[in-house]
Structure formats: C-alpha cells, structure tokens
C-alpha cells in the first residue's frame, strides 16, 4: 500500500495495480496499467520500487523516506499489444510530517490530561483536608460551648443546694425554738387529758326498759 501511494503517478489515472514479485521487505516489482486517454494508446509500466526509512534524530523531527522506482523486465509481465510499455526512473524523498505532528499533539494532549488529573486529585485531597479541619474546629467549638454550659449548670445547682441547706437549717432552728417554748405546755395538756378522767354516759346510750 505504501509503495502504491509513493508513486509519482496520479492515482486517478491508475487502472490496475499488482505486485509481480517481492524481492525483500523494502523492494518489490510492480506492474500497473493506466487508464487510456483518447486519442493516445493505453500505457502500462513495470518497475522495481525500493524504499528506505531514515529515523529522525529526535522526536521533534519527522522520519524521512527514500523511494526509488525504475523500469525493469520480468518474465511474468511481458509487454503486450494492448498497451504501450512506458519507462520510468524516479527518486523521491518524503517525510511523515503530518503523522509526526499528530503523534506529538496526541502526546501533549495526554500530558495535559494527566496533569489535569493530578491537579484534580490534589484539589480533592486539599478540599477533604479543609473539610476535616472545619469539622474538627466546629466539634471543638461545640465541645467548648457544652463545657461552658455544663459548668454554669453545675454552678447554679451548687448555689441552689447551698440555699436549700441554709433554708433547712433555718427551719430546723425555728422548729427547735418552738419545741423548747411549747414543750412544757404540750406535756401538761397530754398528762391532764390522760390523768383527769371524768366518766360520762354517751349521749346515744339508752337504758333498757
């Protein structure tokens, strides 16, 4: 396919193309016929096509191809009366500039994609760390608020306990004072009620007739 494309002929004029013999990986004998252009006779050509690839000295430069085509004779493709055998002697140098540029562009695009992925991963990691820091800061603030409210609540409870104890002591003192003041009178009334008994008939009692 490369040999066919490397010929100097316009592919629109080629009618038939075939490889008569393969001499090596880089050399073949080709027979091809061309479309007849009236009023001239139809032409055919038999030639040996050899090519050589010269690698570029760095990745920024394209590879170079050397192509040589020259007429030969071969027993399997003898001239016929149908076509006039043309003679050629062609040497060409070409470079795969477009392919090389495409490969370089593809490489640069892959590098940009890889760099974008790295930036994305770094940003995701940074965002995660920032979120963790904010969560930790919020947790510490809430814990601090809780400790403050807890201390205030415990302090208020302690003050209430002191007030209750103080009030209890005061009431106990009042009760003790009242006890001391009224003890004799209460005991006297109790003894009087127990010892000073006056027998009486109940108002509901009825004598038997």
UniProtKB/TrEMBL annotation:
Matches recorded under Pfam families? START (PF01852), V-ATPase_G (PF03179)
Output the GO biological process annotations, alphabetical, semicolon-separated: synaptic vesicle lumen acidification
Show the Gene3D superfamilies listed in the entry.
Answer: 3.30.530.20, F1F0 ATP synthase subunit B, membrane domain
- Keyword annotations for this protein? Coiled coil, Hydrogen ion transport, Ion transport, Transport
Any coiled-coil ranges, and where? 99-148
START domain span: 1-87
- Which GO MF terms are attached to this record? ATP hydrolysis activity; lipid binding; proton-transporting ATPase activity, rotational mechanism
The domain of life for this entry's organism is Eukaryota
Transmembrane stretches in the record are none
InterPro entries on file: START-like_dom_sf, START_lipid-bd_dom, V-ATPase_G
GO cellular component terms, semicolon-separated:
synaptic vesicle membrane; vacuolar proton-transporting V-type ATPase, V1 domain
Q: Which family does it belong to?
A: Belongs to the V-ATPase G subunit family.
Q: Which PANTHER family match?
A: V-TYPE PROTON ATPASE SUBUNIT G (PTHR12713:SF11), VACUOLAR ATP SYNTHASE SUBUNIT G (PTHR12713)
Q: What is this protein called?
A: ATPase H+ transporting V1 subunit G1
| Source species | Hucho hucho
């Amino acid at each position: 396919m490369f040999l066919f494309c490397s010929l100097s002929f316009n592919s629109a004029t080629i009618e038939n193309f075939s490889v008569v013999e393969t001499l090596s990986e880089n050399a073949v004998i080709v027979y091809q016929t061309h479309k007849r252009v009236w009023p001239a006779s139809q032409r055919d050509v038999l030639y040996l096509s050899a090519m050589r690839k010269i690698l570029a000295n760095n990745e920024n430069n394209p590879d170079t191809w050397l192509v040589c085509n020259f007429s030969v004779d071969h027993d399997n493709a003898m001239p016929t009366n149908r076509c006039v055998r043309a003679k050629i002697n062609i040497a060409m140098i070409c470079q795969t500039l477009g392919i090389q540029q495409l490969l370089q562009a593809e490489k640069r695009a892959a590098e940009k994609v890889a760099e974008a992925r790295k930036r994305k991963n770094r940003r995701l990691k940074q965002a995660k760390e920032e979120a963790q820091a904010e969560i930790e800061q919020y947790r510490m603030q809430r814990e601090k608020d809780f400790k403050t409210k807890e201390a205030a609540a415990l302090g208020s409870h302690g003050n209430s306990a002191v007030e209750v104890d103080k009030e209890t002591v005061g009431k106990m003192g009042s009760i003790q004072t009242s006890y001391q003041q009224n003890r004799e009178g209460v005991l006297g009334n109790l003894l009087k009620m127990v010892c000073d008994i006056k027998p009486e008939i109940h108002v509901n009692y009825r004598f038997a007739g």
